[in-house]
TrEMBL record:
GO molecular function list: serine-type endopeptidase inhibitor activity
InterPro entries: A-macroglobulin_rcpt-bd, A-macroglobulin_rcpt-bd_sf, A2M/Complement_sys, A2M_TED, Alpha-macroglob_thiol-ester_cl, Alpha-macroglobulin_TED, Ig-like_fold, Ig_E-set
The Alpha-macroglobulin receptor-binding domain, residue ranges: 570-640
Domain Alpha-2-macroglobulin: 1-56
Keyword Signal belongs to the record: yes
Protein name in UniProt: Alpha-2-macroglobulin-like protein 1
One GO CC annotation: extracellular space
Membrane-crossing residue ranges in chain numbering: none
Native source organism of the sequence: Pelusios castaneus
Domain of life, per lineage: Eukaryota
Record family assignment: Belongs to the protease inhibitor I39 (alpha-2-macroglobulin) family.
Keywords on record: Disulfide bond, Glycoprotein, Protease inhibitor, Serine protease inhibitor, Signal
Amino acid sequence: MAEVGFGLSPTATLTAFKPFFVELALPYSVIRGEAFALKATVFNYLQQCIKVQVTLAESAQFQVQAGEDGAYTSCLCADEGKTFQWEVTATSLGEVNFTVSTEALHNEELCGNELTVVPAQGRVDTVIKPLLVQAGGILEEKSHSSLLCQEASEEFSLQVPANVLAGSERAHVTVLGDIMGTALQNIDRLLAMPYGCGEQNMVRFAPNIYIQQYLEKSGQLTPEIKDKAHGFLQSGYQRELLYKRNDGSYSAFGKSDAMGNTWLTAFVLKSFGQARLYVFIDEKHLKDALEWLHRHQLESGCFQSVGRLLNNALQGGVVDEISLSAYVTAALLELGLSLRDPMVNRALQCLREASSTSDLYTQALLAYAFGLGGDIEQRSALLQSLAQHSVSAGGQLHWQRRVKALPSTEPYWNQAPSAVVEMTAYVLLAYLSVPSVSAADMATASQIVRWLSKQQNPYGGFASTQDTVVALQALAKYAALTYSASEAVSVTVSSQGGAQQEFHVDNANRLVLQQATLQEIPGQYMVQASGKSCVFVQVSAGAPGDQQARQSPTIAPGSCCRYSGERPATNMAVIEAKLPSGYIPDKGSLRQVTSCTDLTKEAANFTFSLEQDFPVKNLRPATVRLYDYYETGECLLDSPLAQLVSGASQQLRCGVTEISPGSRRRISMADHPPAGAR
């Protein structure tokens, strides 16, 4: 360093190398019981010969083929490499470590015609490489949630789905002092589903806003939580701009769609507007979206439905003019526009003229919009009408769709459809939408909260995207209005077999996730809370289904998929293919599968190609799931993927004749080698 300022020295280059090293080759993952060749390749960088011993460390997590030695000895001369292999079978689930050591040995014998040397340094090289061992099948994960206040208790039966893989069952209990705690802990994975369109991206964006608003109002927002949420908001904001169109609107797949979507544009607009308090949002994006909505406001004040909405599960919900207009109006008010704004004023007038609708979902949206708009009379009338159609049981309150509900195959788990959760959440928001909520309305709201909290998945979200966004917004609003410093609460979870877990919750740890494993599966459990505050208790159980235990119908090659439910078509259909161990997809062929986003009554084929990347023996069937993204309970299909011929590229064709509401079936796949394959 000079007397004034800094100086940089010339760059110095240093080359270092090991005298020899070992490299392991193994597949990314296998299913328990499958076998593969673990390969260790040793390279000699020296100009002399060495004699090496290569050893695979023993482990209870895998088996080596009988008769094979755990160590190999061999000569390696200058710049030579050799591969050694062991046939291993995975026996334990989870991440299994393989440890291979290579040591240069003192040797008096010649390697060929040369004497061997032992490096002065680097005489041993050890590599530890993990392998993911899975149970196979499709993971079925359910949760049972309870909001227990003061002296309360609840019994539940911990079950696992039929035909699960033996020894793969897992269950745990989670205790939190805050109903927003689970979502806060899992804000980056609220859904156990893939992401990939303009709406799905927002489920990772909007909940951050509501949780931060709640934590700010309750004085619980720490610098750590704030930094984490800021990162999610920033990345979500940048990702969502990929779905913005040149005219200022937003659509599910951005510029690849024919036009923008009214509903999604309003959703993005209000979310970006609310996020301005926490992250930089370019005002131009707000202005562009607002102007686009203004251009699509009709003379009546209602909003024109433009573009395709992927979720049709609401049966005339936001696809009709009135419910869409109610949603957009509420979004404008949440954005902070004044009641004197001409666009808002005309929109509210449109809603007043159409408030006599009998559709429950539309009534819930209207009640919320009128509450935000200060029209207490209209809001009260709609809430009174909704109250006549509520479903009340066990101190809980919710609203059902008028269409026939899907039967639940597991009554001890709560599995409300996405649209039912969303509709109920809007009713809760309507009750909480006025500046001063009456004691009677808060009492009703508490019953709705009890029902909503029971519908949460193990990550704090719900079944799909919009129910997660709206329900978390409503729960955060309720939590902010009812927040008070927690007094100590003791929670005891006990089983009939005598096992017992105890938890202590107070104001200092109310946001801390406390968790314990439950050993008795299946089993009967009792949860007891003792204290003057509320605690959120969630029991989660998961296990992969055993595909081989299910019977498979014979389906002719060339069969295809079609929807046979009550609606004209599904919502966005999702194909999840878990590939056979050692295989990778041909990326070019995957583009053909993404060309279709829904299933209709017409037959449709989905074809993609796989290539073998790593040989695996005793291949277990891989699984394919085909389901409705927004109504996972209606259209669900499990299928085993046929075992593949080693070394060949295969083309796989879906072989499903039809998918009926509530059905769950296992299918076979017809193998068709591409042209030229042998």
